[in-house]
């Protein structure tokens, strides 16, 4: 080996060791690698930082903007609500719906793009369902990679092997020639991810946030079981009355938060203000002790309904919470909740009170507030946002869910149209992927679906730096001859062995290389060697080339194997070893299925 090869192999081994140690952040390791490559002389300093201008990095950054547009217009939240509804609060059922969706998207567009689009959906879903993102994001990434195996355009390696066949005067692969093997890997892979991998996945909670989320605030104020849903029956005295006129709080100690109208749960919820009037068939969302419900239902002609997880999730989209503190000089001190009339002043209702770190019962007519009391307020997110303008209350905690509330909800049809146009342009070939995604990101900003501040904030700097920093390694391996050295020596060990053993060896070679360098670069180098070897042995090159293409998409064992994996590292809180623990068995599954099916579909 040459000196340059030794340098490249040493840098690669060092980077892998640092990734495995988890002592230095992955993005910092990537930057260190960039500096070392620039100083090595194997590639120029300009080439060492060229990853930051690579189309894939620019494309991912633009996709973050598109995804932010879907988040800010409420589409991500609505999709998450649908998944939560059909998933029934079960992690298994959620994955059963989520994984085929991302795989189908990846079959016709970039797998990186599919994951970037669904990332805000899954994070929103995770926050509302209570499932840790680490339980959902790695299966999402792996299903996207498998989805690329389904069609000719699903992933660059498929196109490369087909082009290699054409350039050698052979019949190129058809659009769905990869589908049978890819579909088998998808079905078995989904079964593995849902039934087995879930036991191997880490259970990291959401990224640390100093603010408490809505569910945590419920627990803090002992309100977890106090949310109820009541229906106004015909003849109810509540009809056409406001909450104050109905004496809901002063007489029954029941706090009305929201109303669902039009006879169903799906219509958008109406946050309750001081002048909001109830109607027959309204569904009322109230906070109250269970023992108080029987009386109000009996006297006011109401009936109690179930309050499923999907109902609670929908409430959280339109109605928020905030924890506030009464300062010593607040004019609210010494007044009862009835005297304060906060619903009239702020459009918010008090649903919880803590004094001296202990929860206190809420008696609206008699409980006097004191300095240092903390109140839990509920109301529309718009009113929650305006709390910062209050001089009498100090805002202690605005839940992180506030950031997921649509700020441009009226633009949802525009955002859907932009997303649809982007997908059509990408799948039809009217525009290249980069141009289509950049235009979509620009359209999201110009149309008002996302503003510039939100667009800049959407960039996941850790993921972008990690991807950009690792891309030059492929160039260094190619420039130094290290990649060619590995391929030719490993293929040389195969010799004139059995065709099935040739496919297995090439699969393992391609799969291992794809864990550390671009699967596209790996396929570019391995494909011609695989084709030449098959022709030399006098066997049909189709099963050999299919094996190489499928193997290139099994980038499951490291977080740097694919931008798809890198995208979910930070959000899922994953470590380097997490990918190996879950990904290596999936690689072996893909290997076995490929060796079983490929010779049947494309005989040697």
From TrEMBL:
Upper taxonomic lineage: Bacteria, Pseudomonadati, Pseudomonadota, Gammaproteobacteria, Oceanospirillales
Location within or outside the cell: Membrane
Transmembrane segments: 31-49, 56-75, 95-123, 135-153, 173-195, 436-452, 459-477, 489-509, 516-538, 544-570, 582-602
PROSITE patterns hit by this protein: NA_SULFATE, RCK_C
A Pfam entry, by short name: CitMHS
Keywords from the named record: Membrane, Repeat, Transmembrane, Transmembrane helix, Transport
Record-annotated RCK C-terminal domain positions: 215-302, 309-393
Main subcellular localisation: membrane
Name assigned to this protein: SLC13 family permease
Statement: the UniProt record of this protein carries the keyword Glycoprotein: no
Membrane disposition: Multi-pass membrane protein
Organism: Marinobacterium maritimum
